[in-house]
Write a structure and sequence with these properties.
This protein is α/β, with parallel strands linked by helices and 220 residues long. It has 2 domains: 142 residues, HAD superfamily/HAD-like (Rossmann fold); 68 residues. The chain is 46% helix and 11% strand. It has 9 helices and 6 strands. A 6-stranded parallel sheet has the order 3-2-1-4-5-6, sandwiched between helices. Helix 1 packs across helix 4 and helix 5 runs parallel beside helix 9. The model has no long low-confidence stretch (mean pLDDT 93).
């Protein structure tokens, strides 16, 4: 990296600790709709950090859920998540690092397999709108994470060289996409994604003090 131009954050599980909220809501709704148990480790392996089509396939293969029924299931999950954002805390170091980057003129974006409505709502409710100059989502690319497309699009929107960009991720699919894009990857796991297998993921830093790590890169 010649000089840091931008930082691109994943959203769920990286900016806001929604992974636990997601799991609890999917577990509860799976029980309500299907009278089946969604095991936490199965969720981590097959759903967490993936895209909607992967989750849809898991529910079809495991529970026989039709695509039409999954659409209704997904819509209800999205509603519950949006209604429960107040229960999802901001992850450690995020507010501080965004303020630091903002004060140093470093551009920021969000790159997510989630929906734009979901991300915009979360940023607004947590007071992070002013920091984020661009949002790239699965709705805008042919191939979501673990492909690099979302990260490449986010960098393009910022007018930044992806090779002079930091990506902050929490999950294996997202980390694979970020690393493949050419960005310098900071992997910050949470209470859900820490159980994922990150073998073969080309990260530069893992579970570090985010503020100090970013500061050291900016000020080197």
């Amino acid at each position: 990296m010649e000089k840091l131009e931008a930082v691109i954050f994943d959203f769920d599980g990286t900016i806001v600790d929604t992974e636990k909220v997601y799991y609890e809501n999917m577990r509860d709704l799976t029980k309500e709709v299907l009278n089946e148990k969604l095991d936490k480790m199965d969720y981590i392996k097959n759903v967490s950090g993936t895209n909607e089509e992967t989750s849809r396939k898991y529910y079809n293969d495991t529970y026989g859920m039709s695509s039409e029924d999954y659409d209704k299931f997904e819509a209800e999950i999205t509603k519950r998540i949006l209604d429960n954002y107040h229960n999802a805390p901001v992850l450690p170091g995020i507010a501080e690092v965004m303020e630091y980057l903002y004060n140093h003129g470093i551009k920021m974006a969000v790159a997510s397999n989630g929906k734009r409505e979901h991300i915009e709502t979360g940023l607004r409710r947590k007071g992070f709108e002013k920091y984020i100059s661009a949002i790239a989502t699965k709705e805008e690319v042919k191939n979501p994470k673990p492909a690099p497309d979302i990260y490449l699009l986010a960098a393009k929107k910022l007018g930044a060289d992806i090779n002079n960009t930091i990506a902050v991720e929490d999950s294996r699919p997202g980390a694979l996409g970020a690393a493949a894009s050419g960005a310098t990857l900071i992997l910050q796991t949470n209470d859900i994604t820490k159980y994922m297998d990150f073998t073969g993921v080309n990260y530069k830093y893992k579970d570090v003090d985010l503020v100090e790590t970013v500061r050291s890169i900016v000020e080197k």
